[in-house]
Amino acid sequence: MEIFRFFDAYSIRARLFPAIIAAAPALAALTLLISWKTFGLSSAIASFGILVLLFAIADFSRARGRSIEANLYKEHGMPSITLFRRNDPTIDAGSKDRYREFLAGKLGAAAPSPEEESASQAAADAFYSQCGVWLRQNTRDTKKFPILFGENVTYGFRRNLLGVKMPALWLNVTVVAVCAFILWRLSWDMETPLGSKTTVVLVVAAAHAAYMLLAISRNAVWDASRAYGRELILSCESFLVQPTSPARKTAVRKKAPKAEKTNSSP
């Protein structure tokens, strides 16, 4: 759709898609139960209205997701910090030592020694927080870091979808109540066009509720957050790998011009 050109890849997959999924039963009801032929809005006004609505939904989804994120970090800590700690075995100790040395050079600050980290984890975490900031700022090239970008999208998608989980379920209940009222007015006759469409909306609502209740959870968001944090730290490898220097070209020694023969006799 032309309207999606206003969103970047991350916004579409991590912000807009969760909002659309959250509103799926309502969107299904609008699509099936309303006769769009009766609307006389011009296409320009309709396109503008949809664009504004999509921006609003994406912003709401992001705001709710950030609130969930703050609570998770307060409870568990930020993965890009906790995975760097020496007492976390997720990444091997040798690799983390190399990463600390590299990032210390980039930050112009001394990396905490094992003794310093043992004495003050908070001071060590402050250094690891700076490391995370540097890595995030220097890994924004999605083509150079596609795996990291994919993990970031997955985390953002799950986080934002969890943020709108409860509003989505309440919206689901509302749609089901409206559909039940319509079927009641039709004397539960599902053979009519309106009755069959209403039944489809109820099926969508049931599948949507099952997905939101079973698949969307804090544990799923936390797993995605740790996967992203791990990949962010491992991105140090891309900076540590030195490009191989091209083979030196063998210098071609220029031949001295031949001396011209003279016609003089000895």
Structure description:
This protein is an all-alpha fold and 266 residues long. The chain has one domain (2-240). The protein contains 12 helices and no strands. Helix 8 (146-163) runs antiparallel to helix 11 and helix 9 (165-185) runs antiparallel to helix 10. The protein starts with 8 loop residues before the first helix and ends in a 26-residue tail after the last helix.
> Percentage of helical residues?
55-70%
Number of helices: 12
Strand content is under 5%
Number-wise, the strands total 0
Give the total of domains: 1
The global form is elongated
Q: What is the arithmetic mean of pLDDT?
A: 82
What oligomeric assembly is this protein in? single chain
Beginning-to-end CA distance, first to last residue: 93 Å
Structural class: mainly alpha
Helix and strand run: HHHHHHHHHHHH
Q: Over all CA atoms, what is the radius of gyration? A: 30 Å
Low-confidence stretches: 244-266
